[in-house]
């Protein structure tokens, strides 16, 4: 019997002295609405991901929802047009398609990297397909090179769901820098955390203006911040006054405050240390768990990319082991787990689409056998050793 020593969660957040100082500056300023902290956070995130624009909002889900909405509006997509999404991902990826009155069409995933399988995409394309939404899952990129080629061939847009991947490269370029719009999350357990939050990024001027408008109730882009009417030019001021309470799109209230931006800016000072520590922790787990690789599929890193290890995914590959038994053993011993982002077997999706699993054999296998544990930057060496001890105790019975 192992003595339970730790409670090890999937993610963690620490508010350091810089973050506290930033928050106090915001409170002392008496300004919570969009301002200098938000502008600086957006500019730094855009630069780190080789994007012209980054627009801060209240969640990665909201960013994805608006990304689809503005593309639907700009390119005159019709209700029930189709967006291709992977059959393994967080439920928000396809929920936002439905919220925009479009149809998610599922594509099976790669067995080793769990992202959308480029070899399976074209067989799902129809005359109503408008976009592909690759998800960069668990901290590394989908295989974007063939996806970009397919999108160009079929005149499809690409929305990159980068909510679980920041600061990593694919073919030498930042993940999330290749599609029409890319979306990131800064939720409490993600790589950079602001409590709640997300960003939509693009290189296109028109898309950036539309995204900002949609995040702000659909307001005319001439006035999206209380600073936008700070001008000494009377003609310009009158033009702004005329239009600053004009709403030109059916938008949302997806804004955030300076407080979240203040937290984000503080975390950006340490992003390299955060990613390096996650990678180090993941490497340690991989090396120690390799002895059980006849039972477990250990996570792999694409040879043409890098991995931020937002999460540490594992898959049982032996008929001798039941996932429920291993997960119960881990949870009893204080190691938090999650299933490996099941989607098509979720109750709401079975109600909407029926039993789809047999059409997607890789996803079906992962839904039955996959799970994740944490490897975040605050896990200490003694805690990693404890995780290995718990795994060793379980597998030593076989």
Q: Could you explain the architecture of this structure?
A:
There is one protein chain. The chain has two domains: 17-268, Type I PLP-dependent aspartate aminotransferase-like (Major domain) (Aspartate Aminotransferase, domain 2), CATH 3.40.640; 271-395, Aspartate Aminotransferase, domain 1. The protein is built from 14 helices and 13 strands. The chain has helices spanning 17-29, 36-48, 60-74, 92-99, 118-121, 144-153, 205-215, 234-243, 258-268, 271-289, 323-332, 347-353, 361-369, 381-395; strands spanning 53-57, 82-86, 103-107, 129-132, 157-161, 169-170, 173-174, 181-185, 198-202, 296-297, 312-316, 338-339, 370-373. The strands form three sheets. The chain has a seven-stranded mixed sheet with strand order 1-9-8-5-4-2-3, with helices on both faces. It has a four-stranded antiparallel sheet with strand order 10-11-13-12. The chain has a two-stranded antiparallel ribbon with strand order 6-7. The chain is globular and about 80 Å long.
